[in-house]
Amino acid sequence: MSRIGKKPIDIPKGVDIKIEDANVKVKGPKGETASKCPTGIKVSVNEGKILVERSSEEKTVRALHGLTRSLIANMVSGVSAGYQRVLEITGTGYRAQVQGNKLLLALGYSHPVEFILPSGIKAAVDQKQTQITLTGIDKQQMGQIAADLRALRSPDVYKGKGVRYAGERLKLKAGKAGKK
After folding, report:
1. Which of 2, 49, 156, 162 is deepest in the core (most CB within 10 A)?
2. Is 40 exposed, middle or buried (0-12, 13-18, 19+ CB in 10 A)?
3. Helix (H) or strand (E) holding 20
4. pTM (global) more than 0.90
5. Rounded distance, CA 126 to CA 114, Å?
6. Rg of the chain over all Cα atoms, to the nearest angstrom
């Protein structure tokens, strides 16, 4: 049996759960989100905890048991605490600005790059304009937006210039001369 799927999910204060057929709706102080459960998976609420159970021992149902539990746990923590992802911009003249729901990025190209943020994701830029902080309630969407921003100018392997995740360590190459 799935070790992750068996774990109950604690419901924090201020979070409401509604389960209708195969739909799970989670509402909290940061917002609300919904998800559809796959067939063969049953979600129930007992004594302030969410339980995820499977109906059969088929391979596909077993595979989706832990996944569904993790997705619901991410929804609960997203609406209660939210998620945050920090990106760093490294390079001379590389910077970012926020204008409404747009990020304007100067990444060494001949033109500024406009990146439109989807609804539910907010961005903030620090004073030096080299650190972007993304916040939202959907963990998957947050990771995808951060990956898309990083892909606009992924870090160079020789100088390290580009957009990287905060705390990401790069192994830089020596270059042409083969510096020793």
Report:
1. 162
2. middle
3. strand 16-20
4. no
5. 18
6. 21
Q: How far apart are the first and last CA of the chain?
A: 53
Q: Angle at CA 145, nearest 5°, toward 172 and 171?
A: 10
Nearest CA-CA partner of 24 in 1, 51, 58: 51
φ/ψ region of 126 (left if φ > 0, alpha if ψ in -120 to 50, else beta) reads beta
Is residue 18 within 8 Å of residue 25, measured between CB atoms?
yes
Reading the block at residue 44, the tokens are 């129930």
Token pair recorded at residue 48:
């302030």
Q: How many CB atoms lie within 10 A of CB 3?
A: 7
Q: What mean pLDDT do residues 8-31 have?
A: 93
Q: Is the dihedral of CA 62, 63, 69, 75 positive or negative?
A: negative
